[in-house]
Design brief:
It is built from 3 helices and 6 strands; from the N terminus they run H-E-E-E-E-H-E-E-H. 33% of the residues are buried. With 102 residues, it is of the alpha+beta class. The termini are far apart. It has a single domain, classed as Aspartate Aminotransferase, domain 1 (Alpha-Beta Complex), CATH 3.90.1150. A hairpin with a 2-residue loop joins strand 2 and strand 3.
């Protein structure tokens, strides 16, 4: 397991009520059965909205999540590279809050 995936798992496990699971065959964390973060290509992926979405997407190297790689990105999901691991916990908390409120 890479250092980035270890960090992803530590962040997910530390979030209250987060449950480990799978999303498109990738490790994820869910709240109330709904995924809010996952790990893909050494990056953490977050389901976000509003300002948190804009801020995450503005980070160099971040992009909309396209798990199949076929140009059909999931518009609410932002893939944030490992060099921004320091920001991952706050983004994960924002993603969890967003999905909890849906």
């Amino acid at each position: 397991m890479s250092a980035a995936e270890t960090e992803f798992r530590a962040i997910g496990a530390a979030l209250p009520q987060a449950e480990a699971g799978q999303l498109f065959g990738k490790p994820c964390y869910k709240i109330n059965g709904k995924a809010f973060v996952c790990f893909f290509q050494e990056a953490m992926v977050f389901k976000l909205t509003a300002e948190a979405h804009r801020e995450a997407l503005a980070l160099d190297g971040s992009l909309l999540f396209d798990p199949a790689g076929k140009g059909r990105a999931m518009k609410e999901w932002v893939q944030v590279p490992a060099e921004y691991q320091a920001r991952w916990p706050a983004l994960a908390a924002a993603a969890q809050q967003y999905v909890r409120e849906q």
